[in-house]
UniProtKB/TrEMBL annotation:
<keyword id="KW-0808">Transferase</keyword>
<keyword id="KW-0812">Transmembrane</keyword>
<dbReference type="GO" id="GO:0016757">
    <property type="term" value="F:glycosyltransferase activity"/>
</dbReference>
<dbReference type="Pfam" id="PF00534">
    <property type="entry name" value="Glycos_transf_1"/>
</dbReference>
<dbReference type="InterPro" id="IPR041693">
    <property type="entry name" value="Glyco_trans_4_5"/>
</dbReference>
<keyword id="KW-0328">Glycosyltransferase</keyword>
<feature type="domain" description="Glycosyl transferase family 1">
    <location>
        <begin position="273"/>
        <end position="452"/>
    </location>
</feature>
<keyword id="KW-1133">Transmembrane helix</keyword>
<dbReference type="InterPro" id="IPR001296">
    <property type="entry name" value="Glyco_trans_1"/>
</dbReference>
<feature type="compositionally biased region" description="Basic and acidic residues">
    <location>
        <begin position="60"/>
        <end position="74"/>
    </location>
</feature>
<protein>
    <recommendedName>
        <fullName>Glycosyl transferase family 1 domain-containing protein</fullName>
    </recommendedName>
</protein>
<dbReference type="Pfam" id="PF16994">
    <property type="entry name" value="Glyco_trans_4_5"/>
</dbReference>
<feature type="region of interest" description="Disordered">
    <location>
        <begin position="60"/>
        <end position="79"/>
    </location>
</feature>
<feature type="transmembrane region" description="Helical">
    <location>
        <begin position="21"/>
        <end position="39"/>
    </location>
</feature>
<keyword id="KW-0472">Membrane</keyword>
Length: 484
């Protein structure tokens, strides 16, 4: 995520969630759940009669994969990426994992495949031993027609030389240029689009980004991050950024289909809450991000603990509230996650705080919670994909006033913001109490967030923005080629 995000995988759930969602999105399965779901109170909205369920199923978009449907006149609208048909694109990822950067690059791979581009993927830092996650992600790409090559073989070099476009994903991927291309680096740089997601200072190493001034262009997820890179590269490294494009991300069609289907959300809500031991009437505040100190799970739990004390001290009448941490991985963050669990135990919050393993499928959790907490620290998120995903599910957002979050939400309208760092603990706890005690405010913020997503953070918005960048890079490459 990424980073935005936004997504991970649980081995135990790999087969269960995708199958359930596919079943839910079929009309026959939806009808099977009608009677059972009608009187459930799990979702944010209410459904008055069975006719509403049927109309929702009929109104779902059924367009093809290559075009979007214009509901005003029902005429197909050309995909803005259609010009990439038959183009050869090489995607270079620094790693293949369930973090935001690689998953976002995979999404670009699928968007390009939909319009008929030839797409090749290489992973620069790949584990030598077998890994279930890498195996799963590679086969997901292969099943969608993306070719997967070794990053260090002659095949990768030949592809880079022949490619119409090369996308380097994240600053760390820059190491691949000298390590693999060697004497061919200068031939490839004019057609390189460098997609940068990082906000942390340790990525500003000359060994990573020394070729940055000579590439076709850089694409960054937020204006905040773009300005940070422009200033930092000049001041710390003495190099100049290339032509830089800011591209805000968008939600996939698949996620929007679930977010806009009340029946699907209702059943997912039932299932997740049952698995967590949370009742339908309880309130759930969730932080969905890989567990690490930079994502602020420790400060969120402190805020949550303070909110419980405030509710008790003020004798407020609110439903039981719960905190859910989605993104747990004891193997990756053993020390930090042990601290989190010890804090929960020491404060007797075991029944109120729930840890969920990393998962590629976040929709079930977005369908089952009431508020998203985006608590990324320091400079915040580069963009924060999970934020727009939550807004699609009509969830209010409690976020840090930092980074790309400031370009997504509207404070006081779609979200309530608090400072990053320890000084944000009490403001966040007060915001938790504020939303816990005001259902109308939660629903209004959620609705306005959804409207904002529909206006600017959908897949076709992102495709349009990326298409403009790719055209610029291809024109730049052609101009450089003619001059040489």
């Amino acid at each position: 995520m990424g980073k935005q995000p936004s997504a991970w995988i649980t081995t135990q759930q790999k087969k269960r969630w995708p199958l359930m969602i596919l079943l839910l999105l079929s009309l026959s399965t939806l009808m099977a759940f009608l009677i059972r779901s009608t009187f459930d109170s799990c979702s944010n909205g209410s459904i008055n009669n069975v006719g509403n369920f049927i109309r929702e199923g009929q109104e779902e978009e059924k367009g093809g994969t290559h075009h979007q449907v214009n509901h005003n006149d029902e005429a197909p609208t050309p995909n803005p990426l259609d010009f990439m048909k038959s183009k050869l694109v090489l995607l270079v990822s620094h790693e293949l994992s369930l973090s935001g950067g690689p998953l976002l690059l995979m999404e670009l791979a699928f968007l390009l495949r939909e319009v008929g581009a030839d797409v090749v993927w290489v992973t620069n830092q790949k584990q030598t031993e077998s890994d279930d996650i890498i195996y799963s992600l590679e086969h997901k790409m292969l099943n969608r027609g993306v070719q997967v090559f070794s990053a260090k073989g002659q095949e990768a070099i030949d592809t880079a030389l022949k490619a119409d476009l090369v996308v380097l994903n994240t600053a760390v991927a820059g190491k691949w240029l000298d390590a693999v291309l060697k004497e061919h680096v200068a031939d490839v740089l004019p057609k390189v689009l460098w997609w940068i997601h990082e906000m942390r200072g340790h990525y500003f190493k000359l060994e990573y980004v020394k070729h940055l001034p000579l590439v076709g262009g850089a694409m960054i997820d937020s204006h905040t991050t773009a300005n940070y890179w422009k200033n930092r590269t000049r001041e710390r490294l003495g190099i100049k950024m290339p032509e830089t494009y800011v591209v805000h991300l968008g939600n996939s069609k698949e996620l929007m289909e679930v977010a806009e289907n009340r029946v699907a959300k209702r059943v997912l809500c039932e299932h997740v809450r049952e698995s967590l031991g949370v009742k339908n009437e309880d309130l759930v505040f969730a932080l969905i991000n890989s567990v690490s100190r930079g994502k602020g799970q420790d400060l969120f739990l402190r805020s949550f603990h303070e909110s419980l004390k405030l509710i008790q001290e003020r004798k407020l009448k609110v439903p039981p509230i719960h905190a859910v941490i989605v993104g747990s991985d004891m193997n990756a963050q053993t020390k930090f996650e042990t601290e989190l669990r010890n804090f929960v135990s020491q404060n007797n919050m075991q029944g109120r705080v729930h840890f969920v393993n990393k998962t590629l499928t976040v929709a079930p959790y977005l369908a089952s919670i009431d508020v998203l907490v985006q608590n990324s620290q320091a400079r915040g998120e580069c963009f924060g994909r999970i934020t727009i995903e939550a807004m699609a599910f009509q969830l209010p957002v409690l976020g840090t006033a930092a980074g790309g979050t400031m370009e997504i939400v509207v404070n006081g309208t779609t979200s309530l913001l608090h400072p990053a760092g320890k000084e944000g603990v009490m403001p966040l706890s007060n915001n938790i109490v504020k939303l816990a005690t005001n259902v109308e405010k939660r629903l209004t913020m959620g609705k306005r967030g959804y409207e904002r997503v529909k206006e600017r953070f959908l897949e076709h918005h992102m495709s349009e923005r990326i298409a403009k960048v790719l055209k610029e890079i291809l024109l730049h490459k052609a101009k450089r080629h003619s001059e040489s």
